[in-house]
UniProtKB/TrEMBL annotation:
It comes from Prevotella histicola F0411. It is found in: Cell membrane. Belongs to the membrane-bound acyltransferase family. GO terms for cellular component: plasma membrane. Keywords: Acyltransferase, Cell membrane, Membrane, Transferase, Transmembrane, Transmembrane helix. GO terms for biological process: alginic acid biosynthetic process. The chain crosses the membrane at residues 21-44, 50-75, 96-115, 135-154, 166-184, 204-222, 375-395, 423-442, 454-474. Pfam families: MBOAT (PF03062). This is MBOAT family protein. It is a multi-pass membrane protein.
Amino acid sequence: MTQLSSTLLSFLSTQDKNWSLCTLPFMATFLVFFAIFLCLNRYQRTWMKLYVILFSLFFAFKANGALMWLLPFTTLTSWYLTRFMMRLKRGKIRKIGLAIVIFTELIPLLYYKYMNFTLEVIHEILRSNFAPEKIILPVGISFFTFQAISYTVDVYKGRFPKTTELIDYAFYLTFFPLFIAGPITRAEVLVPQIQVKRPVKDDLVYKGLWLIICGLIKKALIADYIAQYNNIVFDAPSVQSGFGDLMGVLGFSVQIYCDFSGYSDLAIGVAALMGYELKDNFNFPYQSLNLTEFWHRWHIALSTWFRDYLYIPLGGNRKGALRTYLNSFLAMIVAGLWHGASWIFILWGVLHGMGLVIHKFCLNNGLNKIPNNTYVKVTSWLITFCYVSFAWIFFRANNIDSAIELISHIIHETHLSDAYTFLMAYPVWLLLVLISLELHSIRKTDYDWLQQKFIALPWALKLIIFILVTQLVINLSQQSIQPFIYTQF
């Protein structure tokens, strides 16, 4: 009994760098949390909200340790300052108040994420030998900061009521399924669901179970397995053949989709078990026929955030073609910086910004007059997929020199004769990549049909499928557990 108490106390009081929605410690903890949640949700709504907030703060502690204080700090300052801003006189004074609130919400993000990069740039310019200490980036800070900003701006614009109570706002901003890697959720989506009593519906629970199964397969089976070879390629580009490096780039395109989409499925699925409906964050992005469409399908929560809170305020497409191109380009550079404070992420943003500008320019100069036949669609898809995959090199590479080395090795050392050798060396890896790409090609209607078929199954059969997938994850991923890619953002 003493040993059990000691183990429990250690679990409750220590940070876990691997803590996430797909780890066994979280799953076991969630089962206990969920049983109590169901009782409180039915009989004590206020206590249920407090209970979820406390669990969310515990979740943040497990992920961040002492740095978890940033979450309640942001919650309190954002709520109080937004209320204070709305008491100011309309016009210039309230606009100044809005700017102050947004800057206050941004201060922790600017310090923890961009201080080192800023100091490095300054000292490169000054050619000094100063080396700043590495600042630890808190997990999830970019996501809850952007949610806080969206709430403040929506209240200022009158798109969302200014009367939200602190307990409801704290629930919204700390909600643990969204903490590690989003998706970035607007207050208008979640807060109204928090404010009313919502019985947990069977269909929503089963949809949540379906999404959790999909998330586990994508993340723990596919992404984690193929990441092992991808890491070899990006960490040492010259070790493999040029063809092997090319396959590593293809593999990372699959990995990052399965990793991030898998996490989004898990987050939306866990929220659905609790009775909350969140919006989809991915819509088969590798089916896109151009880069604009890709950003309508990839990380939808982030792309719509930048559209509504950066691109449109800059002028959007309302001030002529040149201004539209500039706004698109600037939005993607900021998106690159959001992903990471380094030149390589800026370059990734520049590549996507250039791609969007070129596509919009071509649309304005007759691209839409080309016949929309199968040959054109296949060509458009191939160009888009290859360009996105090329840009992923700069997203994943350790630095610009490493990315250039990888590209050079692919260009000069790729020979089709190496394909057979690669197939014999990595048959399971190649099979998983090809199956993932093939599954990604199915129509949304077919996916929805499959989801509905799962929901209609007897509950015992659904439970058996979930247990089998969980056991498969345990058996196959023990030696290949990888952190979620987007925890670093």
